[in-house]
Amino acid sequence: MAGTGCRWLAVAMIGVLWSGLVLAESEELYRPQVTNSSWEQKAVSPSAYDDPYRVSLFDAPHGEDQARLWSQTKSLAWYGVGVAGVIALLPEDISNWDKDNAKPFSKWWDNVSQGPVWDRDNWQINYVGHTYFGGVYYQVARKSGYRQWDAFMYSFLMSTFYWEYGLEAFAEVPSIQDIVVTPVLGWVYGEWAFQTEQAIWAQGGKVWGSQTLGDTALFFLDPVDALGRGINSLFERQVIKAGTGYMTVSEVPMGNSRSDTQVQLGLRYRFGGSSGEAGELSSSRGSASRHAEDPVDFGIVGLGVGMAQLNPDDFWAVESGSVPVVSLGLYFSSRWSTRLSYARTDLNEKGTGKELTYENYSADVQYYFNGDSRLRPFVTAGIGETLRDQDRDKKTFQVNGGLGLHWQLHPNWALQADWRHFHSTRFSTTDDLLATQLIYRFGRGERL
User: Fold this and answer.
1) Residue 228 · residue 34 · CB < 8 Å
2) Concatenated DSSP letters for 94-130?
3) Quick check: helix, strand or coil at residue 155?
4) Alpha helices, DSSP H, located in 203-341
């Protein structure tokens, strides 16, 4: 029973632990605080945005705290091992991790060779948990002084190569939607959490005029940072300069051939200044430096939902019908975007009337004509797969191409209609999908 209790205790701790992964290291705003470096507190030259899509993670050309980023990355690596341990303890019907006794590295290679695939983990894991984890990765770079695009790329690299093709590949085949959802929606959540924390500090650390509510909100946004500030406030000195959280899971022998699963939470802090000394905690009032706006922010992320009319090939032996569609995209400019689209519905089998599940996903690129106008015709092309009734023997790789019309109603809202023609060489199928979607752009959306 002790092992079972620890499993569920570990699950309950994940939310708090992950939010405490990163610290801010910025100058004090309105009350004594010690956090890590923040882009918002730096005097940034507009030239930093001359090449907005350039990745600056490896050379820090604008004064980013590259040493802190590397330090936090090492902490993340060890912390991820702990999280993988927790997931490994969950029942397989929740985690969907294959726990056979194959040799670990042989199993890893088999999974990597088969992927990526469209997985069927619980939606809470795929679309809530991975979004949250992506936000954690994102803030590691963001709080080390990097632009939003750099922080997004850091989240993509960590979630894809460290997690999907790294630790998690020891247990399951890499997931297509996790590779996309984790960094993309993690960008949205991570920037929201980052800006929310900044806004609370700009109000003197209060929420609705309450110091208690402010302290509570800051704790849940970044509990490790909150504990460090509390110690500094207690000693009125910069005793804690930076820190992170981590978790371990271990089996402890209890005798009589039994063992107990133990989950341990650890907090690791760096004390004093760069040379290790405890510095004075400044109490002077500061302010955020004003600088040029970042032309690439999380407003380029767009979420689309809608309906489509599906005309499947005779090979699938199902009737035509309507199908819900959802897409998640990056709208790089008024000319270019990319998206991951997914359609799934139950259709009647010809002859029997039996309901069968039809699934289709694709990764597409769009080019828009008349980019300076709100009404933009576009062409689209991509690759993906179609699956009938979750039968992997009837899964087929497809290419697609099509035409569409994008109508930008508002910086945050747009209507989009497109027709796409899908073709597979394996079964020589041709499917047609005519879809209409409502697109929502996060943040400030498109700057019309």
Assistant:
1) yes
2) HH------S-HHHHHHHHHHH--B-----HIIIIIIH
3) helix
4) 211-221, 223-235
Per DSSP, what are the bridge partners of residue 251? 261
The angle subtended at Cα 397 by Cα 391 and Cα 399, nearest 5°, is 140
CA distances for 241 relative to 38, 156, 375, angstroms: 14, 28, 52
Q: How many CA atoms lie within 13 A of 357 on its CB side?
A: 9
Q: How many Å apart are CA 90 and CA 133, to the nearest integer?
A: 18
pLDDT bin (cut points 50, 70, 90) of residue 145 is: confident
**275-327 tens-digit pLDDT:** 444 444 433 323 334 445 788 999 999 999 999 999 998 888 888 999 999 99
Count Cβ atoms within 10 A of the Cβ of residue 65 and give its class: 0-12 exposed, 13-18 middle, 19 or more buried. Answer: buried
Amino acid found at 434: L
Whole-prediction pTM: 0.74
Q: How many whole angstroms from its chain centre is CA 5?
A: 29
Please tell me the distance from the alpha carbon of residue 120 to that of residue 110, in angstroms, as a whole number: 19
Q: Are 160 and 178 in contact (CB under 8 A)?
A: no
Token readout for 216 is 């509570």
**Peptide bond before residue 46 is cis, with ω within 30 degrees of 0:** no
Gyration radius (Cα) of the chain, Å:
24
User: Per residue in 209-253, pLDDT tens?
Assistant: 888 888 888 777 765 556 666 666 777 666 555 555 444 445 566
- Closest to 311 measured CA to CA, from 436, 430, 437: 430
CB 266 within 8 A of CB 245: yes
Q: Beta strands of 256-369 (E only): which ranges?
A: 258-271, 279-280, 301-311, 321-330, 336-348, 355-368
CA separation for the pair 312, 358 (Å, rounded):
9
d(CA 190, CA 136): 7
Sign of CA dihedral 206, 211, 212, 216: positive
Residue 391: partners with Cβ closer than 8 Å, 6 or more residues away: none
Contacts of residue 421, Cβ cutoff 8 Å, sequence gap at least 6: 400, 401, 402, 430, 431, 432
